[in-house]
Write a structure and sequence with these properties.
Blueprint: E1 2-6, E2 10-14, H1 23-34, E3 53-56, E4 59-62, E5 73-75, E6 81-84, E7 87-89, H2 91-99, H3 115-120, H4 132-136, H5 149-159, H6 167-173, H7 187-191, H8 198-211
Parallel strand pairs: 1-5
Antiparallel strand pairs: 1-2, 3-4, 3-5, 6-7
Helix pairs in contact: 5-8
The structure holds iron/sulfur cluster (SF4) (2 copies) and FE2/S2 (inorganic) cluster.
Length: 229
């Protein structure tokens, strides 16, 4: 079985010795048996840490859970700086969490959290920051300052947390390069290993924004397709 890995150029490796191996096991095999210079990231080996995300045949996957197949083409994530081979610099992606104020600000009188409250953002809490959604999002191609799927999912997580005291401040921050820039294409949802739908979270944040008096800035420029009048 042969696979190709994008390094400075596409390099083909014969990994016929391996049967039913994950991509991470295959990368480890190549590094120990064929080419010690191959560089990639990994940690937990069990889909928990999010560090091994790459693209296979143009789709984002976790290397530790993906089973390698004949002819696979492996590339680093998109929309991030490639440091070497499959290792990317995630700093800019993580900066968006800070820019989006995606953390909790507890009020002095914190209410008790019920099980129903917890369910509101249970799924969002499962994000492992693998940045697969960031890589798959087409908006970054035209706007590298877009706050993007996982940061907006984090904002939703905290905005929907009953203990948070400044939801309004978070909603204010995501009006620019945020929720209204998303095209609702759903690419982020399709690649998320944790079944998180950032698209759905963005839609909920849009509804929340209207409750605070915001409206879609693109709405005013919509001409209703009546150019011929
Ligand atoms: S739905 Fe929005 S955030 Fe998700 S990939 Fe599409 S444009 Fe990006
Ligand atoms: S939302 Fe999903 S795809 Fe995006 S960083 Fe979190 S776990 Fe990864
Ligand atoms: S090595 Fe941790 S998610 Fe793959």
């Amino acid at each position: 079985m042969n696979i190709k890995i994008k390094r400075d150029e596409l390099v083909e490796y014969n990994v016929s010795e391996l049967k039913g191996a994950t991509l991470l096991e295959t990368l480890n095999y190549i590094k120990t048996k064929i080419d010690p210079t191959l560089t990639y990231s990994s940690g937990c080996r069990s889909s928990v840490c999010g560090s091994c995300a790459v693209r296979v045949n143009e789709k984002e996957v976790l290397a530790c859970s993906y089973k390698v197949q004949e002819g696979d083409v492996i590339e680093p994530l998109k929309n991030v700086e490639v440091i070497r081979d499959l290792v990317v610099n995630m700093d800019k992606a993580y900066e968006f969490n800070a820019k989006s104020k995606a953390w909790i600000n507890k009020s002095a009188s914190t209410p008790d959290v019920t099980q129903e409250n917890e369910k509101l953002n249970e799924v969002q809490s499962d994000c492992i920051l693998c940045a697969s959604c960031y890589s798959a999002c087409p908006v970054y191609a035209v706007n590298p300052e877009f706050k993007g799927p996982f940061s907006l999912t984090r904002v939703y997580k905290y905005v929907s947390d009953v203990r948070d005291s400044d939801a309004k401040e978070k909603i204010d921050v995501i009006q620019t390069n945020g929720i209204w820039d998303c095209t609702l294409c759903n690419e982020c949802t399709m690649v998320c290993p944790q079944d998180i739908s950032s698209k759905a979270d963005i839609e909920k944040l849009r509804m929340k924004s209207t409750q605070y008096g915001y409206m879609d800035p693109n709405f005013g420029s919509f001409d209703g397709g009546l150019d011929f009048l």
